[in-house]
Fold this sequence. Notes:
3 copies of one chain form a homotrimer. By secondary structure, chain A is of the alpha/beta class.
Amino acid sequence: MTAPAPLTTAEAVALLGATARGRAVAVRRLVDPAGLDGGASPGFPGDGTVVVVPRLDAAGWSRCRAAGVAAVVTVAAADADLPAPDAGDPARWLVADPRLALARLSRRLDARPPVAAVGVHPTAAIDPDARLGERVAIGPHAVVAAGAVLADDVVVGPGSCIGAGARLGRGTVLRERVVVADGVVIGERCLLQAGAVVGSDGFGFASGPRGAERIHQLGTVVLGDDVEVGANACVDRATLGATVVGDRSKLDNLVQVAHNVRLGTDVLVAGQAGIAGSTTVGDRVVLGGAAGIADHVRIGDDARIAGGAGVSKSVPAGEAWGGYPAQPIARWARERYLIGRLEAIWAFVKGRA
Amino acid sequence: MTAPAPLTTAEAVALLGATARGRAVAVRRLVDPAGLDGGASPGFPGDGTVVVVPRLDAAGWSRCRAAGVAAVVTVAAADADLPAPDAGDPARWLVADPRLALARLSRRLDARPPVAAVGVHPTAAIDPDARLGERVAIGPHAVVAAGAVLADDVVVGPGSCIGAGARLGRGTVLRERVVVADGVVIGERCLLQAGAVVGSDGFGFASGPRGAERIHQLGTVVLGDDVEVGANACVDRATLGATVVGDRSKLDNLVQVAHNVRLGTDVLVAGQAGIAGSTTVGDRVVLGGAAGIADHVRIGDDARIAGGAGVSKSVPAGEAWGGYPAQPIARWARERYLIGRLEAIWAFVKGRA
Amino acid sequence: MTAPAPLTTAEAVALLGATARGRAVAVRRLVDPAGLDGGASPGFPGDGTVVVVPRLDAAGWSRCRAAGVAAVVTVAAADADLPAPDAGDPARWLVADPRLALARLSRRLDARPPVAAVGVHPTAAIDPDARLGERVAIGPHAVVAAGAVLADDVVVGPGSCIGAGARLGRGTVLRERVVVADGVVIGERCLLQAGAVVGSDGFGFASGPRGAERIHQLGTVVLGDDVEVGANACVDRATLGATVVGDRSKLDNLVQVAHNVRLGTDVLVAGQAGIAGSTTVGDRVVLGGAAGIADHVRIGDDARIAGGAGVSKSVPAGEAWGGYPAQPIARWARERYLIGRLEAIWAFVKGRA
Lengths: 353, 353, 353
């Protein structure tokens, strides 16, 4: 563990946009509120800890005091009903958005070891024709092929493979055993989880006289900045042109993005969802877990697709759809309601038939 | 192939709790009953083979004799109607549970080569600050980071990566290219299939002024004893605290277990099923293939979820649910029945409207 | 990039079975028709390019001329309404099947770098008891275990692992980090995408007195010729005997094929679909994305299963099924129609109850 520097009340106020109540403290560790009930969080409670409790009530406040945490972060709106912190009590840092505060504390107090030590591990196989920026870290048994370009501060985890001519933007991190195939272009500050594959061949065949003939996939993949790709998720290269994932879009584990898909910016794709070939997904779209989108359709900006939904046609911007086959959520709910009336309907029909 | 020692009738009686009929034999190889029909099993029939036929009838007995197997294992209840084995016939080993007998024979007669030869392959990258127990085997190009602790008899397959501070219990086996990320704790006698990822980051973001901000995942994963994780399956680390998989639970290929999920003991999760964040799954639960469970729900002990089901709310202990959205199986079946009456209902309504 | 030799009109006529109109040209690069509208294809338009426009109309022809492509491939039937190419115009290559022409052009003009340079990379860990044919290429950090046999022209990508006694047929290509476990048999000209796992253990357990006991999976996997396996897809080995994938069958990314499944020839399995244990799938079957097939059923030859369908029983040859639970497509459509009448039915019942 690489211990982060202590976070003081003054820094927390700036980092979180918080109002601080109670004593000035310094925290080193973010702990799980479940630990307040004697739960599983190792090492809890302890000195120098901070906990985020989205909406603190009197009972929660008692638990925080009993646990001896140094500071508790909660929504400002919940503070009015609580007693002021005493001299020995935890500090209270009041924020507008506890989840955003959690994100920032988690980053600031991240003590996890880096994926790879700074520098290039002696077992990494780096082609002499690859270009590495400043402070690039490459883990054991990683492979970087000819013509690959890694910008400053790129981290390549152990066993990851970077293909010929691929480009990784500044600060992008590949965890363990990631594949970035030849020619793929990845933006800045992206994070690819273990086992992710970017740039595998799209699934394209033509019927020939002796069975399917492969359509070679000559295109590429372009990921924008701040994109994340989950563990063992796959993004296929385009047949021609590029499969595109827009800035700040996040793909969860085991997601499939087929060839020639275009994902907009700020898209969230939950685990095991899949998007078939040549489909376009607008900005800020949210796909629930295991949702499936057919090929050659268009999901409009800000649309939301329920978990498990099977979308076989285009979805207008801003709409929420669910079901299999998917339809607008309100219509799906109405359909479920009417199906729930079938017992009464059937009794009525039987009684009069 | 590493030939196992021959299994004698006496040993089989003890191993399987069997009653032996016919001659005393010794077997070296467990063969596929499909091979009795001249099917695909290579090298079948042959001397020194044993076959498990769950319920042996006269025709099956004839095939076993013709094939020249040394012994046939079947359920005791099926034996009464068969002629006693003659001197040259296969032995019959009668058991209460042929499937359990199959499990034990398969283990006893496993001739597959070990994942990695005993010892540490010279190409493995072992940090000097990792601690290795007795008889640990580490395959080519595996990576073990600083602070990792591998108990006695651990096997790490080729290309597998073990992160900083991870701990593997005695006798745990990682096959090819497994990732156990930093800080993950794995119990004894676990088996992780090729490509499994344990300890990838949970999918957690907060909305910030410039798009999603990552919630760093500072927690870990704890797998109990005798846990199995399938090929290319993923278990995410918790945001804080731990994602937990209880003793003897088994995850099939391509399963997704999200952050902060708690799986009980003896849980079976079939291929491509997924469990979203912070959901609790009780003991002895069975999830069918591609079933999906929403986040923040609770699946009670002994519940059974049908393949393909989409569970969006909590399921009481002991219940069987199916459908999308999922509901109790009996209600789902009734709903399917009533939908099947719609043709008649519609005809009735049209006739009277 | 390894520039392919230019493709002349004469060669194209032979390769594509095309009728050529207009001037004789030579092309080096296949470009994306989306680029005709000033889209994403890098380097488009340009000299020496060919584009496939499945059905060319007057507007498309104008765009091709404006873009300066050297040749356009289109269906012969569309040509009658277009003006004859002038001297400076692109050539028109008329074919019966533009998609098949695309496949052949894509192969002929594939300029992607090979997965691994010819030869064995010095960091590959090749057991001295492995047998390698002529012109075998093995990438960095690949692992080939004892007794493995690689036929001529096999390519093993970086980080791929080949288990003891596995056999790869002539011309088979493994991309990055593929796992072919011990004893697996793969035919000729197969293509395994990054992260694919072939030969992981099937998911088989028996209930014992102290919980599940693993049924060791002693069988293997046999892939025919010209089989493709997608990125992070899994094919489990059989308990006994073999899991079989027939010639020319293609599995997309994240597909799961469980133990003892038998897939016929020319089967297409789209992304994230799964086939449970011991199920038989006939020849030329097509499974849509995320379709799930239960265990121990039979899908007849030429059956077609819709994306997202959940098949829980056998499907007769030649039928198209969809829905969850799946049923014949026409019945599913009728059911959806009748559910759409529920609003009227319910109003009728309420008005008379």
